[in-house]
Amino acid sequence: MTKPSTNTAYKACLINKQIAKTIAQVEQDLDDSEEFVNDVVAGLHRSALLYGSPGMGKTHLITRALESAGKRIGVDYLIARSHTTPMQFYAMLYLMSEPGKFIVMDDCDGIMTGEEGVNLLKAATDPTFRNVGWASTAVIKIPGTDEIVPQNFDFNGSIVIATNIRGSIRGKAAQHQEAIKSRCVSWKMSYNSKEEQFAYIYHLVIDKNYLESNPETAITWDQKIEMLKFIMANLSTCARLDLRKPQHIARVMLKKPNAWQNHARKFLQAE
Fold first, then answer.
1. Could you tell me the domains of the chain?
2. Between the chain's N and C termini, which has fewer beta carbons within 10 Å?
3. 185-189/47-52 β-pairing
């Protein structure tokens, strides 16, 4: 089966007019988000923060834009993960301190809410004075080398933050979050209702064909339609939807093409 027409896919997936309208809205929202991230990579904004629903591809959107612009991981950009320590983050800032280089922060809530990390991040995202310093006497070396990171330097690279942190956070952590947001251009990518989440998944599966990027999830068009129809039919029982759940279902469909529904139902009901 080749890619079905929009009308054929909507009919097969049991999509009503309201869901179809939501899909169109989500498609426009994603186009706008891609344009924003491309502007960041092009240097229009030096610090950016994408926030919203978890598991909806914020970090993937950023890294895809970097790769499309010819940026190379480890050379032109680094990704700070949730386990990154403030000391490691400081070394990363030094490595990416030149203009045109980037640090992508992938749900680094520890950096964004802890005193050491947030002070580094505030310095690196300051709109006018970007001198970053390390107050400790501990010597920091570039991993795998004997090169010592200086105790202060000017950071002229760019920070792009992808986070799930929401405004419901209280206390000092909320103050830290607001301090970072005030220094960055913020962009919301949030799909809170199950209908919006389904619309986003539909768009990524059908229009962006994101399951093809991994051989383990590269199911046929027939199977994609079958999977989306199953999700739509079970939407009321879903705890929440994100881009990982179709990947889980696709893996099972490839291994058990005639007996995947029970696992899929469990995936959808899981928190």
1. 6-26+191-269 (no CATH), 30-189 (3.40.50.300)
2. C
3. parallel
